[in-house]
Amino acid sequence: MSSLSSTLSSIQQNLIRYGFPISLVLGNLGNIFSITIFCHKRHRQNPCSLYLMSAAIFSLIGINWGIGSNMYSLYYPPDPFTKSLFLCRLRGYLLQSSSLIYKIMILFASIDRFALSSSNVKIRSFSNKQLSIKIIIGIILFGMLISIHLAIYETIENNRCFFFGTYGFFFSIYQICIFGFILPISQIGFSFLIIKNLKTIRMRVQPGLIVENEPQNVLSKRDMTLIKLVLFEIIIGIMLTTLYPIQSLYSILTNDILNKSQDRIAIESFLNFIGLIVLFYLNYCITFYLYIFISKPFRQEVKQFLFKIIKKEQTTSIAMTIVQQRRLNHN
């Protein structure tokens, strides 16, 4: 093994050994907090909150199966996912389906915000709780069904659980189309439509510009907060996951090159690790902290939630102390 290959392998192992545990803990805590916040009664009636809550649930699955399985392989060799075909395919299926469902949930959150901010009453009617629940169920079923091919064709070769041969080529094209074009382009498109609708709303609420007998669309502070969360989620998500489809495209274009040097193979493997594991799953880990950073109302909701927990713990502790004291006095 060359010095470059050895260095890249060492960096990868250290990222898994030291960076992944931190990401796993922060990612799980962040997504659990997000789910708890969006489950609150003030959010349960909002369709966008339901989409974001559902995205956080599948983000948890992605984090634990993506990051957790890599950590397990390093800490408890040999890697069970390269020894058991069932585990290999199960991990691939869960990672692909959860990633796809997560991305589509964010897309429909943007579609919901577009509908809500529209000046067209019929389009606004699509932003409702009952419809969003049906769509969420449909997204889950769609994501599970369209990803079923991984549970059939992913295999183990040369001690690697991966996609090989004709299926590997098909899967790379599939990834490029969905994660490289369809989802990001759709998200960007609806983001621009949301911004356009917001500009229209601002113009119409200016003094002297309100048209009589025309229905006005005034968004609440919570709706504006959710729009902000969705837009930033899309921006960061695209930034962090762009390398993944690019890497897939590169793999297709260089697949027929037989005489690759050891250093080139090591670089390609390392970039694949960064694009597929580090950046792709980092998106799942930082969402909650992104929300806190960009939104003061969201920060306040988190503070209120934490204060309630602390107050409840203090009340329970005081009650237990009083009971113990009474028992001592009684004795």
UniProtKB/TrEMBL annotation:
It holds the Pfam family 7tm_1. The keyword Transmembrane helix applies. The chain crosses the membrane at residues 20-38, 50-73, 93-111, 131-153, 173-195, 229-250, 270-294. PROSITE patterns: G_PROTEIN_RECEP_F1_2 (PS50262). Gene3D superfamilies: Rhodopsin 7-helix transmembrane proteins. Residues 30-291 form the G-protein coupled receptors family 1 profile domain. The keyword Chloroplast does not apply. GO terms for cellular component: plasma membrane. It is a multi-pass membrane protein. Keywords: G-protein coupled receptor, Membrane, Receptor, Transducer, Transmembrane, Transmembrane helix. It comes from the Eukaryota. This is G-protein coupled receptors family 1 profile domain-containing protein. It comes from Adineta ricciae.
